[in-house]
Amino acid sequence: MSRKLLIRLVDAEYAITRLTIGSQLPDWLPGAGFWAVSSSREEMTLVCRAARIPSSVQSSLGWRCLRIEQHFAFDVPGVLESVLTPLAAAGVGIFANSTFSTDYIFISGSSLDTAVEALKAHGHEIMS
């Protein structure tokens, strides 16, 4: 099922950082905007605004954040698919993250124009 969504382009650059399992959460992680921690057997991943990350910390910089503005129940199918399919068709790689209420899609800043065009062509509304 294809959904037409209202998507906000967040006005900040984000970074994705990989830490060793068992690392302490850094003091610079929490703050304004979206931030997240995910952990697996292999690694701990942090996502936050790039401006907060010290230059000594190895990170993947230059990510832009697209936030789905609508809220859907967990069992509603096709929400992320309606965003990821046009991005994949346009050759745009993503890093996705979800909260209880919505989804966040991170794309490389160099792919931003292509991503926005693909999403609009799919019928989504992009807000900045």
List the helices and strands and how they pair.
Blueprint: E1 6-19, E2 36-39, E3 44-49, E4 59-68, H1 81-89, E5 94-98, E6 103-108, H2 112-121, E7 125-127
Parallel strand pairs: 1-7
Antiparallel strand pairs: 1-3, 1-4, 2-3, 4-6, 5-6
What does this structure look like?
With 128 residues, the chain is mainly beta. It has one domain (6-127): VC0802-like (2-Layer Sandwich), CATH 3.30.2130. Helix content is 15%, strand content 38%. It is built from two helices and seven strands; from the N terminus they run E-E-E-E-H-E-E-H-E. The protein has helices at 81-89, 112-121, and strands spanning 6-19, 36-39, 44-49, 59-68, 94-98, 103-108, 125-127. The longest helix has 10 residues, at 112-121. The model has no long low-confidence stretch (mean pLDDT 94).
> How far from one another are the termini?
26 Å
Oligomerization category of the chains in this entry: single chain
The major sheet is characterized as: 7 strands, mixed
CATH superfamily: VC0802-like
Order of helices and strands: EEEEHEEHE
Task: Briefly characterize the structure.
With 128 residues, the chain is mainly beta. Helix content is 15%, strand content 38%. α1 (81-89) packs across α2 (112-121).
